[in-house]
Amino acid sequence: MNSSLDLKWVEIDLSAVAHNTRWVASRLEGASALMAVVKADAYGHGAPEVARVALKSGASCLGVRDLAETASLRRAGLKAPIHLLMPSLPAQAAEVVRLGAAPTVDSLEGARALDAAARGRRVPVTIEVDFGLGRWGVAPSGLAALAAAVARLKHLRLAGLSAHIGYVPGKNSVEAEEKLGAFRRLSAPYKKKDAALVVRAANSSVFVDFPHHRFDMACVGNLLYGINPSPSRNAPLQNAWKFCARIVSLRDVRKGASIGYASEYLAPRRLRVATLPVGYADGLTMEPAERLIGFGSGFSYWGMRAGARLPFIGRCGIAHVLVDATDARGAKLGDVVTVPVRRTAAHDVRRVYVEPPNG
Fold it and tell me: What share of the chain is helix, strand, coil (3-state, %, to 5)?
């Protein structure tokens, strides 16, 4: 576990990852397979460690962003199928083949490069269809031409069709239903022609809110880590993440005293102020995850110590934050406080893993 020399660390509960994976796998319903999405170092949890547990708990393959992530997993000894969720560059085709990755394509140029690099192998490819997210993917109107072109390339095999519809719970559910229905109709002739074709569009939010659109494979990330993107739907998930920091300073501040950057915070009463060695360089108070962690307008952040809240005081610095420890009875130097940190931003903080009972 953590050392007394550590001032901050992240605790990853792999038992929670196993529990969450098993829960998702038990509710695939129409889908026949589960892809564990471990891009961005498994959303900050550690891709090799999470991948091993997810594969033991019901996932049949892994999803990553790019070749660098694929190579990292291969070096870690992962031999499971790895899907590239982003199209690779034509110049990377040989490396795709070497690493045994399952590529995504959205252009004839990319498909031809893979065909040329195959060296006698039959490369299974997935064509991504763009339904308005605008990041990559072929337009629905262009799918037929690209699929026909892939069929003419002797070293490629059309193994799947995918889509990411950009659904945000509570924002665009009607639009999402329309797009998922359109994708189902678009993919139907290809599925009829080849029953083994894998159709996928169910990320975590679609998986929870549109169970009738899970298609052949669910591609889940957030749910595995205990993050329910649709708070209105109950899911028995376990949190896999805990960011811990020790109190490194304690001082009494009189009522009316100004502290913090620009002296902009005035103590409303006599306070006991604690300093934690964690700041926005670690992902603290980064707001883009609002919809996932419940921070709304006017929200006051806080840490937790022994079940008591320690509200943040003033602005968060690059490497420290002040918290109000007045009501934290017995708080002392070295005490551990857990804080809400954006998981993918905590790059340089040591991970401590809690292993499942069977390792």
Answer: 35, 25, 40
